[in-house]
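ingest -> validate -> predict -> emit
validate: passed (alphabet ok, no gaps, 307 aa)
predict: started
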Amino acid sequence: MVERTYDFVQLDVFTKTPLQGNALAIFPDAREISDHEMQALAKEMNLSETTFIVPRDAATEAREGKKVRIFTVEEELPFAGHPTLGTALYLHALQSADQQMPPDQIILDLAVGKIPVRIDQDPKNATDRVNGSAFGEMRQRDPEFGRILAREDVARTLRINVDEIAPEWPSQVVSTGLPFAVVPVRSSKIIAKLKPGFSAEELLQGTGAKFLYFLSIERSEDRLEARARMFFYGGEDPATGSAAGCAASWMAKHGIARSDERVLIRQGVEMRRPSEIFVRAVREGEQISNVRVGGYAVEVLRGTVTL
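emit:
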């Protein structure tokens, strides 16, 4: 049997600080890796997601973007936020090393379609001079708003008091490529005491969503911030970019955030992997569009897998 080796790089995404944020493994050249091996490698990495870049000829990539596949430890996903942002920032860093004037946008060709990621070229915003992290902002698909969940059903699923679910806004299923149920809770203290171990299968049956995204919202002076948590596969996700896009859409739709107002979502605090996710969405009448999710990423290690 022929021995094969594959390089990979690991980033921490939605942070400028190594060993914080959401870790992501990237395989830069997956042309000879089978579907079965991709899934097995993602399980071996044991991170929220692993991405596999499938290089194509220059003309195709110029027209279609960079082909990327995303795997969790359990399944392939059509879209996920932190793998999209992290992979785009990694590709931009490669092009920055090779070109004097790298493009200010990277387009990823995912199973869900083409996702553009714009890189901030303002040196004050785009580059941290200490660790070289860069800021990117992806545009997600325009949102689809689904079922509104009864507060009583949500509270029963979580085994908490119904008064701990915020009454002024609905718990609602939203998708910008991957559906989540956005659940507003009254305060960061309540969100901090939530625990994994509940099953949302019955609550979300028929909605298309598999996971709940919890938000507590605070406006101080003229700045809107939110604390967030997301539990999946029996554990917790330190940053969920796909759900953050849903949250941005939900906040714009229900008048929590102004049109195109940038909101900082802090996630991962309780699991000691603090993440900062910057989101915004445009509202024109009842139409929500131009959903953007941004953040930083920093490289933490490189390695080689031998098969």
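The two ends are 10 Å apart (CA to CA).
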